[in-house]
Each structure stands twice: as C-alpha cells, then as structure tokens.
Amino acid sequence: MAPWGKRLAGLRGVLLDISGVLYDSGAGGGTAIAGSVEAVARLKRSRLKVRFCTNESQKSRAELVGQLRRLGFDISEEEVTAPAPAACQILKERGLRPYLLIHDGVRSEFDQIDTSSPNCVVIADAGESFSYQNVNNAFQVLMELENPVLISLGKGRYYKETSGLMLDVGPYMKALEYACGIKAEVVGKPSPEFFKSALQAIGVEAHQAVMIGDDIVGDVGGAQRCGMRALQVRTGKFRPSDEHHPEVKADGKLHLTGFRGTVPTASSSDSAFQ
Ligand SMILES: [Mg+2]
After folding, report:
1. Could you give the angle at the alpha carbon of 42 between the alpha carbons of 200 and 162, nearest 5°?
2. How close is the Cα of 69 to the center of ligand 1, in Å?
3. How confident is the model at residue 256 (pLDDT cuts 50, 70, 90)?
4. Co-location of 249 and 163 in the same domain
5. What is the pTM of this model?
6. pLDDT at residue 266 tops 90
7. Is position 69 within any domain?
8. Less packed terminus of the chain by CB within 10 Å, N or C?
9. How remote is the CA of residue 148 from the centroid of ligand 1, in Å?
10. What's 130's domain CATH number?
11. What is residue 213's DSSP assignment?
C-alpha cells in the first residue's frame, strides 16, 4: 500500500461520522470515544475543512449537538449533515405528506411538514416506537397507495450503544419492503446525494476529501463510490471481519491514539493517521 503521504495528497476536507467515531450513544448522553474530543479540536485548528456527516435519526440535530457539546466536542448544528433535514426538503419538493415511523426525539425536525392524509411513509431509527402497531400502521398506509413511497433515513443494520449493539432502521425498512413488494428511497449514507451535499457545504471536491467512519459499507463503501478516500476507525461497530469484507476495502485504518497526535496534511509523514 502506498505511504500515507501519497494516499492523503491533495486533501482539503474531512467528513466525520459521529456515532461510533466521536461517541457511543447510550444512557445519560453516551460516552466520548477516547481521543476523539482532542482529534476534532486538532482537525479544526488545521487547514482542513471539517464536516460532520451522520445517519443519526433518533435525535434532532439540536439535541445531538447539545449532547456532543456536553461531552466536550467543538461542534455546532450548522456543521452537521443529517438525514432528517434532507428528507424534509424532499418531502416539500415532491408535495409528500408522510406517516412518520420515527423516534419522538427527532419529531421536531418535521414540525413544518404536513402529515395529514399521508401519501408516503418516512421511517427512521424509531427505537422503542418500532411497535407492531406502528410498523403495521406504516404497512397499511403503503398498501393503500397506488404508488407507494417509502423514504428511509439511512439503512444501517445496527450500531453500537454503551450497552451493546442495537438494531438500526435497516431491518425494519427491509420488513416493509418485503411486505409491500417495494424498494425504499434511502436518504443518508450511503446515498451519493447525501455525501455530495456534505461536501458542497464545505466547498470541497470528492477527490479532495476523506471520510472517517466506523461502518465499512455505509461510511467507507459509500464514500469511495463517490470518489472520496475513506478510513475506518477501530471503534463503534468496527469488527475485525470488516477487514476481509468481500466488496469494500478501506483506504486505511485509524487508531485514535495516532489520530489524536497527528493531523494529516498534503505532506503527511507515513505516521499520519496510523
Ligand atoms: Mg457510525
């Protein structure tokens, strides 16, 4: 493999995943991952543009940013690309009125959306709200539509909380796809439009950016398909088997102890990110 200096040449921007990279969510607001507060601070002091690119769909951006700030992160709402606001834009553009199969924590993001007589379903990481009744309500809405539209905020299989691995939105999205014989539209990673909107926000081209995430498919594979380089951290949902994934190979692995001490530059030494 080429030395880091070569692999990170021309780098102008960094997209950072949040859950599993900066912190593990959980009771009491979750826990910062060792080294990550300092790593974000160091990146923001560097010449690199930084954007947070998350599939978090249980919390509003305000709530998420509030939690992260309490853990010590330098982050503001304006720096976060998240799927709920992107979905709202699509709903408005297409005149869609959703049945919301979502967590109460993210409901405020949909305050301006008309939800009367639903003509589509929006599904997110609803957590405890994935009751039989709520999932069945969504199923019934879709089955009554001539052209059923299912919008899914991400399609992750699972994520890590401080208490352990948790089912994400993907398995429930798949259940509705299967029951209704339809294909969901995914808003969030690994959708190329989502990565592009994050890059646009910092004015950086895909070939000038690196994505740092813990999901080998959603973060690493998705970013690489957009022309970005992508690194996988060894925290969050990382599993050793990710290194032998049949389709996706990260451009590098990241050890936070090294990340904390080194910021990549166009002339990074071979030790950068290691
Ligand atoms: Mg993650």
Report:
1. 85
2. 18
3. low
4. no
5. 0.86
6. no
7. yes
8. N
9. 29
10. 3.40.50.1000
11. E
